[in-house]
C-alpha cells in the first residue's frame, strides 16, 4: 500500500487565452511528427544525477526513470520503474519495491535490483557537494533481493521516503556507464526514461527522441522534443516572438508575463499559469565577519520590504513570503511578519545599537546572473536600495553565472547570497530539512539541534502529513529567530504556449518539473 498524504497542494493550473474570439481546440490527436521546441533559461549544471540538486532535474525527469514518480495531477508517489512499493513494518523504517519485469536501459543493460542499489549507493559514496546526498540522510542501507526486489532499511522512521524516491535525484543509471565511486566524465547520459538524449550541446540545446524500450507510466504524446537553452529572458522571448519556439518553460520575466496576459502582441500565444511553490530567499554565511552577527541579520530582516520588492520588480507576478514554507503547503505560517512586523528603520537601528554596532555595516550581496531570469538583477538592486536608504548599511551587489556562483557559495566566499528553491516534493519537510544540518543544499552549515534532532524525526514518524503542522510551525519560529535564512517571495510559474500546442496545462508535475511527454501538436486549427 502506497504512502498517501492528506496534504492538498495548489496544483490546479489556469489557462488564459490571449487571442480574442479564439476558442481552445480539440485535444484528441498528436497532430504530426514535427518536433516540439521548448525554450528555457534553466540549463542543466551536470548530466550526472549524483551531482545535481538543482534545475538539472528538469531534463532528468524526461530521460531517466525513478522507482516512483508523480503522474500528471497526482501529489502522491506512484509506480514508474517499480510495479509496487510499500512500507513492510509499522514503524516506517523498511520500504520495499518490486520492479516491473523486463526493464532495460537505453544501452541494453538490464535495469534490475542491483542497478537500483548501484544508482543510490553511488550518490552516497560520491557525496558531491552539489549533489542530492542530503535527501538520503535517513537511509541506512539498500538490499537487492533477487532481480526485482529492492529493500531500503532506514536509520529512523521516515514517512517522506517514498517522496524522496520519486524525485529526479534518485534517477536510475546503468552500472557499466556510471562508476560507483566517481562521476561520469565522458559527457554522455544513459537512462531508461520516456526519452533518449540524442545529442546535447552545452549552452545551446538538447535533442530528445522517444525511447523505444521505455516501460513506465508516461503516455507520450509526441515523438521528439528539442530543448533550447537561453542565457537570459530577453533572448528567449525574442525567439518566442520570432516563432522559433513552441513553448517557453522557466525564464519569463514579469514584463513578459504582463505583456502576454494583456495580449498586446497578437502572436498566436497563450499563457499557462500555475500556482507554484517555488520560493526565493537570502542565505547568511555564519563564518563571515558581518553576516555571522545575529544583530546584522535581524536588522536586515527588519528592513526588507517584500511588498515593494514584488511590486517594483515582479509586477505582482509573485507575492511576499514570510516563512520558508510557502502558501499551499501544510505548516505555512507568517512567522517573519509576526516577529518583525512592517519594515522599520527605527527598529533596525535599535537592534544594531543594542548589539554595540553604531557604524554603517559594509555588506556584499551576491546573486546568480543566469539561473532565475533577468529580473534577479533588478531584485538585488532593489534590496540594495532598501538597505542603503536606511542609512545603516553600505551594500555592494555582485553577480556571477550559475556555475561560478555555485563554486563561490560552496567555498564560503559570499557573506550573503540569494537562492531559489523549487520543491523536491510537496511536503513541508522539504522546505525545512534541506536547509539545516551539516550536509545541506546551501553548502553553509546551519546547526539547529532542535530542528534536526527533535522536530524533523517526530514529524517523520507521522504518516498523516496534515498532522505535522505544529512541528513545522516551531521550526519556523527557530528560523525567524536565527535569521540564517530570510524568505523573500513565493512565485508563480508561467508557460507561453503556441495555440497549436496542447498539453501545456498538464505538463507540470507537483515539483513544477516539466513532463515533456504531455505536449503535442493539435490535429486541426
From TrEMBL:
The keyword Nucleus does not apply. Keywords: Signal, Transport. It is found in: Cell envelope. InterPro entries: Peptide/Ni-bd (IPR030678), SBP_5 (IPR039424), SBP_5_dom (IPR000914). Residues 76-440 form the Solute-binding protein family domain. Its main location: other. Residues 1-20 form the signal peptide. It comes from the Bacteria. Gene3D superfamilies: Dipeptide-binding Protein, Domain 3, Periplasmic binding protein-like II. Belongs to the bacterial solute-binding protein 5 family. This is ABC transporter substrate-binding protein. It comes from Streptomyces yaizuensis.
Amino acid at each position: 500500500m502506497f504512502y498517501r498524504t492528506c496534504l492538498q497542494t495548489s496544483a490546479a493550473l489556469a489557462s488564459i487565452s490571449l487571442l480574442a474570439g479564439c476558442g481552445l481546440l480539440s485535444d484528441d490527436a498528436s497532430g504530426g511528427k514535427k518536433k516540439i521546441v521548448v525554450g528555457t533559461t534553466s540549463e542543466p549544471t551536470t548530466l550526472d544525477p549524483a551531482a545535481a540538486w538543482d534545475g538539472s532535474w528538469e531534463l532528468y525527469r524526461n530521460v531517466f526513470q525513478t522507482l516512483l514518480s508523480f503522474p500528471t495531477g497526482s501529489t502522491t508517489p506512484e509506480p514508474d520503474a517499480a510495479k509496487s512499493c510499500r512500507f513492510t513494518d509499522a514503524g516506517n523504517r523498511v520500504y520495499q519495491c518490486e520492479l516491473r519485469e523486463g526493464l532495460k536501459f537505453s544501452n541494453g543493460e538490464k535495469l534490475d535490483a542491483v542497478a537500483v542499489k548501484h544508482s543510490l549507493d553511488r550518490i552516497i559514496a560520491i557525496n558531491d557537494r552539489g549533489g542530492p546526498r542530503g535527501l538520503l540522510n535517513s537511509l541506512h542501507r539498500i538490499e537487492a533481493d533477487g532481480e526485482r526486489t529492492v529493500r531500503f532499511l532506514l536509520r529512523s522512521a521516515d514517512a517522506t521516503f517514498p517522496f524522496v524516491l520519486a524525485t529526479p535525484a534518485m534517477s536510475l543509471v546503468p552500472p557499466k556507464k556510471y562508476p560507483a565511486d566517481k562521476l561520469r566524465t565522458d559527457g554522455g547520459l544513459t537512462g531508461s526514461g520516456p526519452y533518449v538524449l540524442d545529442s546535447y550541446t552545452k549552452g545551446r540545446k538538447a535533442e530528445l527522441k522517444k525511447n523505444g524500450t521505455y516501460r513506465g507510466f508516461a503516455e507520450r504524446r509526441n515523438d521528439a522534443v528539442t530543448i533550447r537553452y537561453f542565457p537570459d529572458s530577453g533572448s528567449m522571448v525574442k525567439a518566442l516572438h520570432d516563432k522559433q519556439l513552441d513553448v517557453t518553460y522557466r525564464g519569463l520575466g514579469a514584463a513578459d508575463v504582463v505583456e502576454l496576459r494583456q495580449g498586446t502582441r497578437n502572436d498566436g500565444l497563450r499563457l499557462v499559469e500555475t500556482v507554484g511553490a517555488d520560493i526565493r530567499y537570502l542565505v547568511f554565511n555564519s563564518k563571515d565577519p558581518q553576516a555571522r552577527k545575529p544583530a546584522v541579520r535581524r536588522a536586515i530582516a527588519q528592513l526588507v520590504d517584500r511588498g515593494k520588492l514584488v511590486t517594483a520588480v515582479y509586477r505582482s507576478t509573485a507575492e511576499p513570503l514570510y516563512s520558508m514554507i510557502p502558501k499551499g503547503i501544510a505548516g505555512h505560517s507568517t512567522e517573519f511578519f509576526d516577529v518583525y512586523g512592517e519594515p522599520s528603520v527605527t527598529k533596525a537601528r535599535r537592534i544594531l545599537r543594542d548589539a554595540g554596532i553604531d557604524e554603517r555595516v559594509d555588506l556584499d550581496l551576491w546573486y546568480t546572473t543566469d539561473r532565475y531570469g533577468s529580473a534577479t538583477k533588478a531584485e538585488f538592486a532593489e534590496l540594495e536600495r532598501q538597505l542603503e536608504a536606511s542609512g545603516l548599511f553600505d551594500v555592494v551587489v555582485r553577480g556571477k553565472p550559475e556555475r561560478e556562483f555555485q563554486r563561490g557559495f560552496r567555498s564560503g566566499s559570499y557573506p550573503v547570497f540569494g537562492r531559489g528553491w523549487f520543491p523536491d516534493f510537496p511536503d513541508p519537510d522539504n522546505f525545512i530539512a534541506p536547509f539545516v544540518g551539516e550536509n545541506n543544499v546551501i553548502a553553509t552549515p546551519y546547526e539547529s539541534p532542535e530542528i534536526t534532532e527533535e522536530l524533523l524525526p517526530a514529524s517523520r514518524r507521522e504518516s498523516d502529513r496534515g498532522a505535522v503542522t505544529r512541528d513545522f510551525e516551531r521550526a519556523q519560529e527557530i528560523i525567524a529567530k536565527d535569521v540564517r535564512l530570510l524568505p523573500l517571495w513565493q512565485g508563480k510559474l508561467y508557460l507561453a504556449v503556441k495555440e497549436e500546442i496542447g498539453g501545456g496545462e498538464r505538463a507540470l508535475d507537483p515539483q513544477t518539473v516539466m513532463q515533456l511527454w504531455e505536449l503535442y501538436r493539435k490535429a486541426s486549427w
